[in-house]
Amino acid sequence: MHILIVGAGVIGTVYAGRLLAAGHAVTLCARADRLAELEESGLVLEDAHSGQRVCREVPVVGPTDAAGLRCDLALVAVRRDQMITTLPLLQTLGADVMFFGNAAGLVTTLTEAMGARTLFGFPAAAGVRDGPTVRFVLIRQQKTMLADPGRPHSARNTDAGQDVSGRWIPHEDRR
């Protein structure tokens, strides 16, 4: 599965690293300074509990180059106040789109814009960026949550859950 991750902050970087480790093809979409950091240093993750550091090469594109990119899933890991601004890019993709974070108050707008391709998720990780390095923790008390709006028994949601989180972090299918 090829996954485009829109947003290369803490959450986008952590999930990119985990998805790469699970064998998926991942492309990160980043802007400005973060794009330059990723091009120069690659993906740099440090587990805040163990201190284990992982560096991975990952294809990186800017928003303009991401338009029309062929992928199976676009995982949108941006702040709530940035979700609407990603719609023009996402509408150029033929893939399912998972808005991954706090979409409170935006679910209807995002679902109307993307139609049946819309999924929602909430991550079970947190951290901070320090230059190119993302120091993170996996929140064991919280599972990665996934939802397919209006489709309570969605095979698509189950499949996305297995791809996005099922192989490396507990998740709950919110049907």
Structural account:
This protein has a single domain (2-173), classed as Rossmann fold (3-Layer(aba) Sandwich). 29% of the residues lie in helices and 31% in strands. It is built from six helices and twelve strands. It has helices at 10-21, 32-41, 63-66, 87-90, 107-114, 155-166; strands at 2-6, 25-29, 43-47, 53-56, 60-61, 73-76, 96-100, 118-122, 125-130, 133-138, 144-147, 171-173. The strands form two sheets. An eight-stranded mixed sheet has the order 5-2-1-6-7-8-11-12, with helices on both faces. It has a four-stranded mixed sheet with strand order 4-3-10-9, covered by helices on one side.
Topology:
Layout: E1 2-6, H1 10-21, E2 25-29, H2 32-41, E3 43-47, E4 53-56, E5 60-61, H3 63-66, E6 73-76, H4 87-90, E7 96-100, H5 107-114, E8 118-122, E9 125-130, E10 133-138, E11 144-147, H6 155-166, E12 171-173
Parallel strand pairs: 1-2, 1-6, 2-5, 3-10, 6-7, 7-8, 11-12
Antiparallel strand pairs: 3-4, 8-11, 9-10
Labels describing this entry:
8-stranded mixed β-sheet, 175 residues, alpha/beta, Rossmann fold, disordered C terminus, 12 strands
Question: What is the gist of this entry?
Answer:
This protein has 175 residues and is α/β, with parallel strands linked by helices. It has helices at 10-21, 32-41, 63-66, 87-90, 107-114, 155-166, and strands spanning 2-6, 25-29, 43-47, 53-56, 60-61, 73-76, 96-100, 118-122, 125-130, 133-138, 144-147, 171-173.
